[in-house]
Design goal:
Blueprint: H1 8-140, H2 146-158, E1 170-175, H3 181-191, E2 195-200, E3 207-212, E4 215-220, H4 221-232
Parallel strand pairs: 1-2
Antiparallel strand pairs: 1-3, 3-4
Length: 233
Amino acid sequence: MDALGINLGFFIAQIVNFLIVFLLLWKGVWPKVTKMLDERAERIAQGLEDAHAAEEKLANAEREREELLHQARAEGQKFIEEARQRAEEQAKQILAEARAEADKIRAQAHEQAEEERNRILSEAREDIVALAMAAADRLVGVTLDEAKQRAIINEFFTAVPPEAKGLGDHVTVISAVPLTDEEKSQIQKTLGAKDVAYQVDPSILGGLILRAGDKVVDASVRGDLLALAQQLQ
């Protein structure tokens, strides 16, 4: 060893020192370093696992958000459609009620107008009878029996033509002026009908028009004038 320039005692001392340092490091420092590295590796692995779990949660949350948005859109569209349908139904109901009310008002107005017209015609009928009786007296030059004159003039408005007898069970009678209950009863008795409906149409001027289904008997003054006009042509 001396020939090599190595001091054996010093060399052995160095070896002993190295072993002591190695033992100290192996027993004291190395386990801590190894533990620290293991803990760091565990933290990194845990961090990676947490990051992966967070990514999965984020992806799940995104899917849930999309599903909720889709569901919300669907429910919103459904709500809008239901609201639109309800609005349309309410509008239809309001319109139907308004139309019904308008029809009711028109019907009442028509009924009132018809009642007023019939009242005026009833009053005019008496005036017509009085004027006709006065004209007959002037033409004849003498005063005729008032009862007979009134009967003749009333017959002008209510006479049932012979061909109308037995016309049917359900007959509509159109007169130029409103008829009294007694006249209606007599007409129904003459017709022999089970049911008779009465209408007033001043344009026929006088006489009666009788209808039963497609059968029509026109004994009105207007009908007579039209027939006469056709004959004169």
